[in-house]
Specification:
The chain has 134 residues and is α/β, with parallel strands linked by helices. The chain has helices spanning 27-37, 56-64, 91-101, 120-129, and strands at 20-21, 41-46, 49-55, 84-86, 105-110, 113-119.
């Protein structure tokens, strides 16, 4: 992340395509995707487009409640409220949004189309980089 400043657009932190899952996928299938791709969040996409997000915490909560991950469906455990910002939002303002909403992931849009997801870790690393002494 060399050279990222707090005033730079958060879109510069987006590094790849958004990982997705179907609302009808099992929680096990979603967990396998998260694990194989070393991710913390999946975008839940149905026929009408993006509808929600499913985080590793959603899956852990389901397991803790005694749910069967081979039976439970993503749609029943995903969070429908997507926290989104435009890719032009500053890294500082993106971090502020994440902290105010008390979430760990932020969906990044370009002209209303989802182009990526950044985590609180991505944002913290970018903000701390400016203060790191070589």
């Amino acid at each position: 992340m060399l050279g990222i400043r707090p005033t730079d657009p958060v879109g510069t932190l987006v590094t790849g395509p958004v990982a997705m899952t179907s609302p009808t996928a099992t929680l096990r299938a979603a967990a396998e995707t998260l694990t194989s791709d070393n991710l913390g969040l999946l975008l839940v996409v149905g026929p009408a487009g993006p509808r929600a997000v499913l985080s590793e915490r959603d899956i852990v909560a389901s397991i803790a409640a005694g749910d069967d991950v081979d039976v439970e469906r993503v749609r029943d455990h995903a969070t429908a409220d997507l926290l989104t910002v435009d890719e032009s939002t500053s890294v500082r303002d993106a971090m502020r949004a994440v902290l105010e909403a008390e979430v760990r992931h932020l969906v990044i849009e370009r002209g209303g189309v989802i182009v990526g997801v950044v985590s609180i870790r991505d944002l913290a690393a970018a903000l701390l980089e400016e203060h790191t002494i070589a």
